[in-house]
Amino acid sequence: MSDPMNENVLELLQHFKTEDGRVSTLLDELNVLNSRVKTADLGSDPRILADQQSRKAKANKDTKAAPVTPGRREKRLSSDAFINNVKVEDSDIPIPPSNPHALLPSPPGAHEWESLQAAVNDTVGVFKAPNAKMGWKKWALTKSHCGLLLSLFWWTVSTVFCPFHPNSKSTSAFAFEHFCRHYVRLVLRLKGQSRDQYQQVWILMMSQATCYLLADVYPRSAHKFDEALEALVVKQMRLWT
Question: How many CB atoms lie within 10 A of CB 115?
């Protein structure tokens, strides 16, 4: 006994046969219908919809400005850091102030406080006790250290990247004198074991902050402000102390 379903299929095939006896038209129609069904299934599958919504939410989140709370070597550039499109080798080294107690100028696009804060956060993990962490942040996050950061910034630009600039020698000498006064006034006044520990961590903090500030001001040259440059600044500061 024949199956009514098979008879219906045969009749349908006869209907779609072309003159040469092929059923290509039917196959084309079935392929189109099949693709539409798959598309509809994908659009209605709750797992697919959830994944699409998750991807969309992530994309929207990535476009928003992230807060400046970086870890080591992961500091985000400020949103307006790219106003300065100058390479570090093309820097315009400033003439040092006539007043030896004045500060070297802040370069365009610089956010020295954010760079200092990032470096302090990087190094606070050296201290284990909550009171020790708080004490370190209180001592390190000061305007005085921000001013020293500018001197280290200009010393690095003048000495490492622009040694032949007409203002390089005078600016680097001014930065060195500022460093010496700062070291005597803030670091040498510490007493006991805390001074030894603070001095070592302080050197690391200031070298990291210098590299962060360089990347902030010269984003086109950011690849040059790596661990090797940080090690160079650390070595120089240790020689000075």
Answer: 27
Determine the Cα–Cα distance for residues 72 and 125; give it in Å rounded to an integer. Answer: 11
Q: Which candidate, 219, 215, 100, 65, places its Cα nearest to that of 153?
A: 215
Query: How buried is 51 (Cβ within 10 angstroms: 0-12 exposed, 13-18 middle, 19+ buried)?
Result: exposed
- With 0-12 / 13-18 / 19 or more C-beta atoms within 10 angstroms meaning exposed / middle / buried, residue 53 is exposed
| Beta-carbon count within 10 A of 39 CB | 10
The CA distance from 170 to 163, in Å, is: 11
pTM strictly above 0.85: no
Residues with Cβ within 8 Å of 159's Cβ and at least 6 positions away in sequence, in order, are: 168, 172
| Whole-number Å distance between alpha carbons of 213 and 154 | 10
Positions of the chain with pLDDT lower than 50, given as ranges: 5-6, 9, 33, 37-44, 48-49, 56, 58-82
- What distance in Å separates the CA atoms of residue 219 and residue 28, rounded to the nearest whole number? 56
- Reading phi first (left if > 0) and then psi (alpha if -120 to 50, else beta), residue 210 is in alpha
pLDDT per residue as tens digits for the range 63-113? 333 333 334 444 444 444 445 677 899 889 999 999 988 999 999 888 999
- Taking CA atoms, 225 is separated from 121, 163, 210, 215, 230, in Å, by 19, 17, 9, 7, 7
